[in-house]
Amino acid sequence: MEDQYDSDTVRASVSESGDAITDMIVRTVATAKDCDALDLPPLAETVDGDALVALFSASTDVTVTFAYAGADVVVQNPGRIYVTPSDD
C-alpha cells in the first residue's frame, strides 16, 4: 500500500508490549506538535477511549479519523497511528 501521508506526518505503531492505544495516540500527537503530552487536553474530551480500545482489540480492518489538539489523527488496525498537525 502506498504511503498517502506527507513528510509532516508522524507515524507510530502500538507495540506488542501492551501500550494502550490511547496512550500511543497522545504521545504521537505530542511528538507531532513538538510539546509534552501533559500539555495536551485529555483525549477523552475528543474521543471515547474505551470505544477505541474495543475497536482495535478486535482483529477487524478498521480506520478511525478524528481531530485532536490541533492535529488530524488516523488510527488503523492493526495499531498504526498517523498524526499530521492541522493548519488551524
Explain what you see:
It is built from two helices and four strands. By secondary structure, it is of the alpha+beta class. The chain has one domain (10-85). A four-stranded antiparallel β-sheet has the order 1-4-3-2, with helices on one face. It is globular. It starts with 9 loop residues before the first strand and ends with a strand. 18% of the residues are buried. The mean pLDDT is 86.
Beta strand count: 4
- The figure for the number of domains is 1
Number of helices: 2
Helix and strand string, N-terminal first? EHHEEE
Strand order of the largest sheet: 1-4-3-2
Q: Which structural class best describes the helix and strand composition?
A: alpha+beta
Strand content: 25-35%
How many whole angstroms does the radius of gyration measure?
Answer: 12 Å
Assign an overall shape.
globular
The level of helicity is 25-40%
What do the pLDDT scores average to?
A: 86
Q: What's the end-to-end separation, in Å?
A: 29 Å
- The parts where pLDDT drops under 50 for at least 5 residues are none
Give the biggest beta sheet.
4 strands, antiparallel
